Amino acid sequence: MHHIDIWKESLEEKKMPLVSVIMPCYNHGAYVGGAIESILNQTYPNIELIVADNGCTDNSYEVMNRYQDRIKIIRLEKNDRRWCLRMLLEAVTGEYVAQATADDEWMPEKIQLQMEAFFSIPNLQVCFTWALEADENMQVRAGQEKNAFLAKNRSRGEWLWFFFHRGNCLCLPSALYRVPVAEYFAQIARGYAQLGDFYQWVSILQHGEIYVVEKPMVKFRWHTSGNNANESAPSIGTAIRSGLEYVDITLQIAEDTEDKLFLEAFGGEFVNPNARTHKELLCERFFLLKRRAEEAPAFSTAMFRFYYSHYDEMERMLQSQYGFSFDDYRELAENTGVTHMKVMLDLASATNKIQGDSLYAYRRLAQKLVKECCPEGIDKRIVGVIFALMPETEQTDVRRLREVCGAVLDWVARHGSLLGVMHFEFMELITGAWQIMDNMREQLRLLGILQDDEEFELFGQLVHFAQTEKIDLQEAVVPYIEMMAGQLDGIVN
After folding, report:
1. CA 251 to chain CA mean position, Å
2. pTM for the whole thing?
3. CA angle, corner 299, sides to 296 and 304, nearest 5?
């Protein structure tokens, strides 16, 4: 007798609980027939399939209707994902429930293997299987070794650690729940748009076990664009919503996990390896969030919310046992996280605007002086006025350039005979001078120093060439430095 026959006999003794499969469908007329047949062809014999036409505008309903004698059909006038799921759950009559998607397909033994797990694992709340990504023709794509939905089984603590540090790795269309569990999570949904299923897995761990059938029992089509795009398809909006919701879920892990499970999950990274009391574990939860915030500033929101919520309980313990004082909090709040980043960006933006406005004003005035006083070219009498109008930082740069040019000429005066031997050492001084000139082109032009761009470009090419090849620096580049220094002498006091 085959294993499957023995298992069926054991199910008959257990009266084969009814498994309800719910399937919302929106404009998946090209795929919904295959999805329905993959469920009707399950080896587990006691299944009801409830399919919802979620306001479809294509031929989805006509395809569903071909199976009307074997499935239940619900029709909604307009597309509404959340209301559709509520209607489907209300129609469930089984003891177990699974949510299928209308463009995916299941392997025949999926529910059978999952029900076998429910009968053998105490306190199992939800059972998953592996899932494979497929193309439009339901052919499995290459590169499945990178597929997150091929996760190995873990203990409750190991799952929790993974969810906190790595994120989701369990596929919703593979999940099979006990009906009370599904109904419970439908009632406590936190309004997530992206990670509602991930929040369920985290919350389920607080109450019992999860298990993965380590076989690929689901093939899912991955649509990244168009009307059939997956809810988690890459986009800026998806990334932002996922980030916000992941931060909130990490906070829920820190807040809701009972002490024993928290110790099992995160004890290996405690600040105090011997922490066991509730207050000590509160402090460890805070430091867990703090480390996460140090890895990614977005998580600082969760860290500070936890700190504020449990400050009275943690204050003395943080100070006496962990050496974390109120002054440490003040410094942390000042230099950490999204608010810190926003304030600093606003400050930088304001500073840049002030400097930009000032720079714009002085340039306009300098150009007006040149135009009115020196119509045939800049006059040295005006240069001092223009220099005085420049922002202090740019005046400093001009003085620094004069010092660097002076240092180059001083080196030539003292070591001119060694230019050939110490070529590359000398080039460090030359390169430094050229970089400052290049960064200050517009300012030097206003001061009447850089009037010939072609000549300056040639000088720059010679500097680059001389960085790797030995040339006669005395003849090629030093004269330009001498000219620059001479012009700067009339400006910088």
Report:
1. 17
2. 0.68
3. 135
Q: What is the average per-residue pLDDT within 60-73?
A: 95
The CA-atom distances, in angstroms, between 96 and each of 47, 70, 125 are 10, 19, 10
Task: Record the tokens describing residue 468, joined without a space.
Answer: 């790797």
Q: Cα(308)–Cα(294) distance, rounded to whole angstroms?
A: 18
* Burial class, 8, CB count within 10 angstroms (exposed 0-12 / middle 13-18 / buried 19+): middle
CB 238 within 8 A of CB 232: yes
Q: How far apart are CA 373 and CA 362, in angstroms?
A: 16
Within 10 Å of residue 367's Cβ, how many Cβ atoms?
12
Strand order in the sheet with 47-54: 72-76, 47-54, 19-25, 96-99, 176-178, 124-134, 209-221, 105-106
Q: What is the pLDDT of the chain when averaged over all its residues?
A: 84
- What does the block give as tokens for 8? 């069926």
What would the 3-class secondary structure string for 290-315 be?
Answer: HHHHHHCHHHHHHHHHHHHHHHHHHH
Whole-angstrom distance, CA of residue 14 vs CA of residue 131: 29
Tokens of 231: 């809810």
Q: Distances in Å between the alpha carbon of 428 and those of 110, 411, 444, 467, 473? A: 70, 12, 22, 8, 12
Q: What is the DSSP letter of 51?
A: E
The tens digit of pLDDT for each residue in 334-392 reads 888 777 666 766 766 676 666 556 555 555 555 555 555 544 555 565 677 677 777 77
